[in-house]
Specification:
Oligomer: single chain
Helix content: 10-25%
Radius of gyration: 17 Å
Shape: globular
Number of strands: 16
Number of domains: 1
Distance between the termini: 28 Å
Largest sheet: 8 strands, antiparallel
Length: 271
């Protein structure tokens, strides 16, 4: 039996579908654009995008300082699940998610075409997820480990193979995509499990006015990468972030980008 989704979730999913079409077009051109923008450091990015006023760098700027590398140590066993957590995936089926081309393989989720969104909507939350980029990906380099977790379906924390690939800092693993790089780069090699632990505070609205922006505190592989960091608007590619949809809840969304990234042990605690 299909579970109905809320009006907020439906509105967000429609917006995600429209944005996904633009992202797919961007990805089709991404390789050539980034090769043309490569600088002497070997970092790919853009210099023809708008400037982020709070830091002075372009969106996806290759000259933005890259986070220093930190070795997080070996990948641990799956983290225990708190007794009051809502399990989104524990190794069984995808009953908590809207059905699409993603599948369960060997007790883990494997990304397929399009996005995977929860049936329920959430606001403030604590989210845990574990992901693994494929070790022998045969697609284009800019899709290597490429995925993401979109909080409320709108604000993306990037998933990417930042162990090997030198992408613009606001697009590397654990970045608030297009806005803020992580404090350190603790990405493990492809083929090893990574963990994200996210504390998210949803934006608050006073009618049409943004009373307080969304914020995120986050650990990647046990290392602090964001501390009460302001999220400055909805995620998109090559544009300034902006709050457009006045929502305080939305689904958790995993973003597919033609790379079979795997996921396990997804749970959250509404706050």
């Amino acid at each position: 039996m299909k579970t109905p989704i809320s009006r907020n979730a439906r509105a967000v999913l429609l917006a995600i579908s429209a944005t996904a079409a633009l992202v797919q077009l961007d990805c089709a051109l991404l390789g050539a654009d980034l090769v043309n923008a490569r600088d002497g450091s070997g970092v790919y990015g853009y210099k023809d995008t708008p400037v982020l006023l709070w830091c002075g760098f372009h969106v996806h700027d290759p000259d933005r300082p890259a986070p220093r590398r930190v070795d997080p140590g070996p990948a641990p066993a799956p983290a225990p699940v708190p007794s009051d957590a809502k399990v989104l995936f524990g190794g069984g089926d995808l009953s908590a998610w809207q059905s699409n081309a993603w599948r369960v393989v060997d007790g883990v989720i494997e990304a397929g075409a399009g996005n995977l969104a929860t049936k329920e909507s959430f606001g403030d939350l604590q989210l845990h997820l574990e992901w693994m980029a494929p070790a022998d990906f045969e697609g284009p380099w800019y899709n290597r480990g490429n995925n993401g977790v979109l909080l409320m379906g709108l604000y993306e924390i990037q998933i990417f193979d930042s162990y090997n690939e030198k992408l613009y800092p606001d697009g590397q693993a654990a970045a608030i995509y297009g806005q803020t790089p992580p404090r350190v780069n603790v990405t493990r090699p492809p083929g090893q499990w990574q963990t994200f632990d996210i504390i998210f505070t949803a934006p608050k609205w006073d009618g049409e006015r943004l009373a307080s922006p969304a914020r995120v505190t986050m650990f990647h592989n046990g290392a602090l990468v964001h501390l009460e960091e302001e999220i400055r608007g909805e995620t998109n590619h090559r544009v300034l972030p902006e709050y457009k949809r006045r929502l305080n809840q939305g689904p958790v969304v995993l973003g597919g980008h033609d790379c079979p990234v795997r996921f396990r042990n997804l749970w959250l605690r509404p706050l």
